[in-house]
Amino acid sequence: MYSDTKIAIPIFKKNKEEILRISTEYIEKGADILELRIDGISNPDPKMVKDIIQEINFPTIATNRLKVEGGYFNGSEEDRITILRAAADVCEYVDVELQTELEYINSITETGVKTIISYHDFEKTPSLNEMFDIVEEELKIGDIAKIAVTSNTLEDTIDVLAVLSKFDNTVAISMGELGSYTRIIASKFKAPITFAASDDVTAPGQLDFETMKWILNLNLIDTDDLI
Q1: Which of 50, 92, 182, 185 could be cross-linked to 59 through a Cys-Cys bond (beta carbons 3.0 to 4.6 Å apart)?
Q2: Which one has a higher pLDDT value, 34 or 203?
Q3: Angle at 95 between CA 92 and CA 101, to 5 degrees
């Protein structure tokens, strides 16, 4: 039995040639969806990004990550959102951070593209109630909620699984080596997407694509065991 959770591969490269090379490699390996990290591209502009996604010609998440959430985009916030709006015409999803000004978020959702509303904490795992509130707010705005937090204890990782258990259409990740297993077990909670690494690791605790795909397709864990 194969997992319904899609494996996304982040593509974090500086130029079009490298992006297309890695994209082709992982499409051939069986990735379900790609995540184009626009903030990794040298001097991206709307036309460039749109052209790259069209040339990839495969389901793609367009992400232009905020610096405060681990991103590298050097332009203005208006420029960042303008690029995402252009990408909305040709990509499967746009990922936009919850802390983005609502006016900018609305300008993306109004295009009709499916959206992932995301939240990242690279220092800690918020309390369970805080995470519930974050995801509830994200789901009011977009199609998929994403919360990625840093695990400092095993209990932190259990709280992340509680988020997955409570909400549909949610990606919940416990970052770091301690929480890497949450990226696999997420499929048993019907998470729509999980993230694996290509030759770049874009978040702590990411597993490589081959390992992730092998484990998910083994169906090692019976869903009934999690009840």
Answers
A1: 92
A2: 34
A3: 135
Q: Is the CA virtual torsion 107, 108, 112, 116 positive or negative?
A: negative
Q: For residues 81 and 64, what is the distance between their CA atoms, to the nearest angstrom?
A: 8
d(CA 160, CA 148): 9
Sheet holding 193-195: strands in order across?
Answer: 170-175, 144-150, 114-121, 93-97, 60-63, 33-37, 6-11, 193-195
C-alpha dist (Å) from residue 34 to 29, 30, 94, 193: 12, 11, 12, 11
Average pLDDT rounded to a whole number, residues 177-198:
89
Residue 105's φ and ψ, nearest 5 degrees, are -60, -45
Distance CA 129, CA 72 (A): 30
The full set of domain ranges for the chain reads 6-116+179-226
Which residues form the catalytic set? 120, 146
pLDDT digit string, tens, across residues 14-68: 999 999 999 999 999 999 999 999 999 999 999 999 999 999 999 999 999 999 9
Homologous superfamily in CATH for domain 6-116+179-226: Aldolase class I (3.20.20.70)
Beta strands in 107-206 (DSSP E): 114-121, 144-150, 170-175, 193-195
How far is 154 from 132, CA to CA, in rounded Å? 19
Instruction: Please tell me the distance from the alpha carbon of residue 226 to that of residue 74, in angstroms, as a whole number.
Output: 43
d(CA 92, CA 80): 18
Angle between helices 154-166 and 128-141 (to 10 degrees): 40
Collapsing DSSP to helix, strand or coil, 141 comes out as helix
